[in-house]
Every structure is written in C-alpha cells, then in structure tokens.
Amino acid sequence: MKTVWLICLLVSSLFLIGVVFRQKLSWSWLKRFALQLVAAALTLYLLNYSGIVSGLEVPLNLITIGTVVLLGLPGIALVLGLQGVLF
C-alpha cells in the first residue's frame, strides 16, 4: 500500500512541476511565495532569540511558518496567543 501512495505522490508531483514550467505566471507567484516563506522563518527565528517576547518560544515548524506566511504579523500574534492560552 505504501508503494501505491508513493507512486501517486510522484506522479502528482511531476504533473505539478509540469504546470509550473508551462505557466510563466507561476514563476512570479512561486518567487513571491518563497520570499514570504524565508521572511516568515527569519522573523520567527529573530523573535525566538532576540528576547522580545520573554517566556514564549515559537517552534520553527511547517505549521507555524505556514501560519505566518498566510497571515503575516497577525499570524505571529495568533501563534503567540494560542501558545499562551494552550500551554
């Protein structure tokens, strides 16, 4: 069963790469997304190690970085608020 899922993943990845290469508009979107992803990771990293928010440390994982990429600064506030309430 794992091989079936792996084959599905590989085939869909190849189709996705084909769509990105055919569409010139996709390159600009992909570059902008990559820049936002790097900016979000750097912001969370600096927030953790600068000591601005004492007592809270935001983990650098896919979910927190994705939240910050999608929501921007309110995403940071959301992650910090959830961490303060839940933990």
Give a brief outline of the structure:
The protein has 87 residues and is mainly α. The protein is 83% helix and 0% strand.
What is the fold's blueprint, element by element?
Blueprint lengths: L1 H21 L1 H27 L11 H10 L1 H14 L1
Keywords:
single chain, 87 residues, mainly alpha, 83% helix, 0% strand, extended, transmembrane helix, transmembrane
Overview of this structure, please?
Keywords: Membrane, Transmembrane, Transmembrane helix. This is Pro-sigmaK processing inhibitor BofA family protein. The chain has 87 residues and is mostly helical. The protein has one domain. 83% of the residues lie in helices and 0% in strands. The protein contains 4 helices and no strands. The chain has helices spanning 2-22, 24-50, 62-71, 73-86. The protein starts with a helix and ends with a helix. The model has no long low-confidence stretch (mean pLDDT 84).
Strand residue content? under 5%
Largest sheet: none
Q: Which descriptor suits the 3D outline?
A: extended
Helix content class = over 70%
Number of domains: 1
Mean pLDDT: 84
From the N-terminal CA to the C-terminal CA, the straight-line distance is: 38 Å
Compressed to H and E, one letter per element, the order equals HHHH
Counted by DSSP, the helix tally is 4
Ranges with pLDDT <50 over ≥5 residues?
none
Q: What structural class results from the helix and strand content?
A: mainly alpha
Overall number of strands:
0
Q: Rounded to an integer, what's the Rg over CA atoms?
A: 17 Å
